[in-house]
Design brief:
alpha+beta, 9 strands, Glutaredoxin
């Protein structure tokens, strides 16, 4: 099964920063901003999380839930949330099953080294569970505003 615009989002259940299991199916009826990021407490990921936190009132007004997913542990997420005052849910995908299902677990290159990691990506899912927009290889600067604009259009 692949993730495509106009198709149903791939279901999942993952533990949040508090060890509570969150399932995508439980969020039907709301818009879901599902974003994948490489690693807690790294520069780009911190900026992105802080940008989403700053814009959270706007997302709530648009009846949207923001969920961040990375392969970090729930304990790492707790630390990241406390350190950066993040006010939305972070989900732990330590076995990378959800990242693989959403096709964001990719071969990457950095300074000539190849490794597997998260390709920063965001998926906008409508209240019926349908993917309406996909951003891949996200550039952090201005991304949250792009997501808000897409959400405002419905």
């Amino acid at each position: 099964m692949s993730i495509e615009i106009g198709k149903e989002a791939i279901g999942f259940s993952l533990k949040n920063q508090d060890g509570v299991e969150i399932s995508l199916k439980d969020l039907k009826g709301k818009w879901v901003v599902l974003y994948f990021y490489p690693k807690d407490n790294t520069p780009g990921c911190t900026v992105e999380a802080c940008d989403f936190t700053a814009a959270l009132p706007d997302f709530k007004e648009l009846d949207a839930v923001v969920l961040g997913i990375s392969p970090d542990s729930t304990k790492s997420h707790q630390n990241f949330i406390e350190k950066q005052n993040i006010t939305f849910t972070l989900l732990s995908d330590e076995d990378k099953e959800v990242a693989k299902a959403y096709d964001v677990w990719k071969l990457k290159k950095n300074y000539g080294k190849e490794y597997l990691g998260i390709e920063r990506s965001t998926f906008l899912i409508d209240p019926k569970g349908i993917v309406t927009k996909i951003w891949r290889k996200v550039n952090v600067k201005g991304h949250v505003d792009e997501v808000k604009a897409a959400l405002a259009k419905g």
